[in-house]
């Protein structure tokens, strides 16, 4: 097992991607702590992991709430002997499909502020416990749009900010034995639904547009297919494990070749 006896917190662990990663972490032996704002989806993940013989707990909290995040991290560390893995997958409120010159300031800056704030609060909480023990992994995930993608709105600068933060954090916590790194993931088919499209742009919320988006994403990749959620979860588990002990301060390209890196 890659993560045997590790304690892993997944913020946004009830979502389409977070839930699969949480289950994969548990399958690999980790005690998983899913956190987010919707109790129902979190509890479903806990039930699945528990039924499979794993250990999981749910906590309803807002990743933008410093005190709540700090208290939860402290609770996990004190009750289970430490915090080994932290992954933030909290939605940022991105708006896409609208030209920049037609976009409002609020829609443009929201993913930058929300994404960087949540990423900072959750990573800081984990790092404070990890550096004292001399081990731990802080994982991040974004679409890699810092490489620049058209009609992505604030997603591009939000991703760039997170990339830079993770690299800076890695340099600071590395001497203490803590790793900080991430994955670039662009358009996971299982997480793209009509409802999800409505969240980023209501005008795109229909089956025809969804089909077109999925086909376009696949065509843009070197592999001519979009990596599935299971592949991404497996990559996350590897990066969080000791087998990836030499990796830090970088992002792994899991886009299927959407761009070179």
Task: Give an account of the 3D structure.
- The chain has 261 residues and is an alpha/beta fold.
- The protein folds into two domains: 7-188 and 228-253, 3-Layer(aba) Sandwich (Rossmann fold); 189-226, no CATH class.
- It is 46% helix and 15% strand.
- The chain has eight helices and seven strands.
- The protein has helices at residues 18-27, 39-51, 66-80, 105-133, 155-173, 194-200, 207-220, 229-240, and strands spanning 7-11, 31-36, 55-60, 85-88, 136-142, 178-184, 251-253.
- The protein has a seven-stranded parallel beta sheet with strand order 3-2-1-4-5-6-7, with helices on both faces.
- Helix 1 (18-27) runs parallel beside helix 2 and helix 3 runs parallel beside helix 4 (105-133).
- The chain is globular and about 50 Å long.
- It starts with 6 loop residues before the first strand and ends in an 8-residue tail after the last strand.
- The mean pLDDT is 94.
Query: What is the typical, i.e. mean, pLDDT?
Result: 94
| Low-confidence sequence ranges | none
Helix content: 40-55%
Tally of separate helices = 8
Principal-axes shape call: globular
Under the CATH scheme, which architecture of the largest domain would be assigned?
3-Layer(aba) Sandwich
- The separation of the N and C termini measures 30 Å
Q: What is the string of helix and strand elements?
A: EHEHEHEHEHEHHHE
**Residues in β-strands, percent:** 5-15%
How is the biggest beta sheet arranged? Answer: 7 strands, parallel
CATH superfamily of the largest domain: NAD(P)-binding Rossmann-like Domain
CATH topology of the largest domain: Rossmann fold
Number of DSSP strands?
Answer: 7
Q: What gyration radius follows from the Cα positions, in whole Å?
A: 18 Å
Across the major sheet, the strand order is: 3-2-1-4-5-6-7
- Helix/strand-derived category reads alpha/beta
State the name of the first-level CATH class of the largest domain: Alpha Beta
**Overall domain count:** 2
């Amino acid at each position: 097992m890659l993560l045997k006896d590790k304690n892993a917190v997944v913020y946004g662990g009830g979502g389409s991607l977070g839930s699969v990663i949480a289950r994969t972490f548990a399958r690999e032996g980790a005690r998983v702590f899913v956190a987010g704002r919707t109790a129902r989806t979190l509890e479903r993940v806990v039930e699945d992991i528990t039924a499979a013989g794993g250990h999981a707990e749910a906590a309803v909290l807002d990743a933008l709430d410093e005190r709540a995040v700090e208290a939860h991290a402290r609770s996990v560390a004190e009750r289970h002997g430490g915090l080994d893995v932290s992954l933030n997958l909290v939605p940022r409120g991105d708006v896409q499909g609208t030209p920049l010159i037609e976009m409002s300031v609020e829609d443009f800056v929201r993913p930058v502020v929300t994404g960087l704030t949540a990423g900072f609060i959750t990573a800081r909480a984990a790092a404070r416990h990890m550096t004292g023990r001399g081990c731990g992994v802080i994982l991040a995930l974004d679409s890699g749009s810092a490489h620049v993608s058209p009609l992505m709105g604030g997603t591009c600068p939000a991703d760039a900010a997170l990339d830079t933060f993770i690299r800076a954090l890695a340099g600071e916590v590395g001497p203490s034995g803590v790793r900080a790194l991430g994955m670039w993931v662009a358009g996971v088919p299982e997480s793209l639904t009509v409802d999800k499209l409505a969240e980023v742009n209501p005008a795109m919320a229909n089956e025809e547009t969804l089909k077109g988006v999925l086909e376009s994403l696949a065509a843009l990749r070197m592999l001519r297919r979009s990596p599935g959620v299971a592949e991404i979860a497996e990559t996350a588990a590897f990066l969080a494990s000791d087998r990836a002990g030499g990796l830090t301060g970088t992002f792994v390209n899991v886009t299927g070749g959407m761009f070179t890196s």
